[in-house]
Design goal:
Elements: H1 5-23, H2 27-56, H3 89-97, H4 104-125, H5 137-159, H6 165-169, H7 172-179, H8 185-196, E1 204-205, E2 208-209, H9 227-235, H10 253-265
This protein binds heme C.
The site of heme C has 24 residues, from helix 9 and helix 10.
C-alpha cells in the first residue's frame, strides 16, 4: 500500500533531523570561519595582482599584466564599432535580431525578465519529489534548450560582422545600380561619403544601418526634396528642428554638394 504524501514528508523530515544531529557540521562557527578564510584569500590575490600590475608597468609601457592605460580615446571617431564583453554576446545578438526600434523592448526587458520569473517561480510550480534528471523530461529539455540557445547566440554574436564604413563603401556600386545613379559620378561620390561619414550609425539605407535615435530610412528620401535642400539640411540640421544629428558643414561645400546629389538621387528601387 502506498503511503500518503504527508506521512512520507514527516518521516523524511525526522530522518533529515537525525542525520544533521549525527553527521552535520554547525553553521556557526564552522561555515562562517570557512567563508571568512576563503574571502580573505580572494582579496589577497586581487590585491597582489593589482600591486604587480601597477609596479611592473609604467604608463603605456606594458608589464606582464598589461599597461596602466592604452591610447587616449578619440571622441570624434565615426568608425569605431562598440562591442560588448564576450559574456554579453548572447544579449548583444538578441538585440540584432530585434533591431526594429519598437521591438528593442522585447530583447532588453521582455525575454530576460520572463526567463528570470520562470526561474524564481521554479520552487513553486515544480513541486514533485523526483530529482533524477531522466525522470524530469520537461525540466531537462528546457535547461538544455536554454543552454543551447545561449551558446548559439553567443557564437553568432562573436562572429557577427559589423558594418564598418570601409565595408559599407563596397556596397556603393550596388546602391548606385539599384537606385539608378550609376551614371552620376557626383551622386556616387556622395554615396561613398555617406557610407564613410557614420550616417548609418543612425540611419538605415537599402537594408543597411542601425535605425537609431528615431533617424528615418533614407532609401527613398530623394522623393521628398532636392539636392540643395539636403545641402542646407546637412549644413545645419538644428535649423530644421533636428537636434540629434550634428552639423556636417566641416565636410566642405564640395562634399556636401555630392551628398546632396546622392540623397536627391535616392528615390527608392520601386520608383525606377
Ligand atoms: C546621431 C544620429 C544621426 C546621424 C549620425 C545622422 N543623422 Fe540624419 N537624422 C537623424 C535624425 C534623428 C533625423 C530625423 C530628425 C527629425 O525627424 O526631425 C535625421 C534626419 C535626416 C534627414 C532628413 C530626413 C527627412 O525626412 O527630411 C536627412 C536628409 C539626413 N538625416 C541625412 C543624414 C546624412 C547624410 C548623414 C551623414 C552625413 C546623417 N543624416 C547622419 C539622426 C542622424
Amino acid at each position: 500500500m502506498a503511503r500518503d504524501l504527508g506521512e512520507l514528508n514527516r518521516e523524511d523530515f525526522a530522518r533529515y533531523k537525525d542525520d544533521v544531529k549525527k553527521e552535520g557540521k554547525p553553521f556557526f562557527p564552522r561555515a562562517i570561519f570557512h567563508d571568512t578564510v576563503m574571502s580573505f584569500i580572494v582579496v589577497c590575490v586581487i590585491t597582489a595582482l593589482a600591486v604587480i600590475w601597477y609596479y611592473d608597468a609604467d604608463g603605456v609601457k606594458p608589464g606582464i599584466l598589461g599597461p596602466w592605460y592604452t591610447e587616449p580615446a578619440d571622441p570624434g571617431t565615426t568608425d569605431f564599432v562598440p562591442r560588448p564583453d564576450w559574456y554579453f554576446y548572447f544579449l548583444f545578438y538578441l538585440l540584432r535580431i530585434f533591431k526594429w526600434p519598437e521591438t528593442v523592448f522585447i530583447a532588453t526587458v521582455g525575454i530576460p525578465t520572463i526567463g528570470l520569473m520562470l526561474l524564481i517561480g521554479l520552487p513553486f510550480y515544480d513541486r514533485r519529489r523526483e530529482r533524477r534528471p531522466l525522470h524530469r523530461p520537461v525540466a531537462m529539455v528546457a535547461a538544455v534548450l536554454t543552454i543551447l540557445s545561449m551558446a548559439v547566440l553567443t557564437w553568432k554574436g562573436a562572429t557577427a560582422k559589423e558594418a564598418l564604413g570601409s565595408e559599407l563603401v563596397t556596397l556603393v556600386p550596388k546602391w548606385a545600380e539599384e537606385q539608378g545613379f550609376a551614371d552620376n559620378p557626383e551622386a556616387v561620390k556622395g554615396a561613398e561619403l555617406f557610407a564613410q561619414s557614420g550616417c548609418l550609425n543612425c540611419h538605415t539605407y537599402m537594408g543597411q544601418g542601425a535605425g537609431n535615435l528615431g533617424a528615418p530610412n533614407l532609401s527613398e528620401i530623394g522623393a521628398t526634396n532636392d539636392a540643395s535642400y539636403f545641402v542646407q539640411y546637412l549644413t545645419n540640421p538644428a535649423a530644421f528642428g533636428n537636434t540629434v544629428m550634428g552639423s556636417y558643414a566641416y565636410l566642405g561645400q564640395e562634399n556636401l554638394a555630392a551628398l546632396g546629389d546622392f540623397l536627391a538621387a535616392s528615390k527608392g528601387t520601386s520608383s525606377k
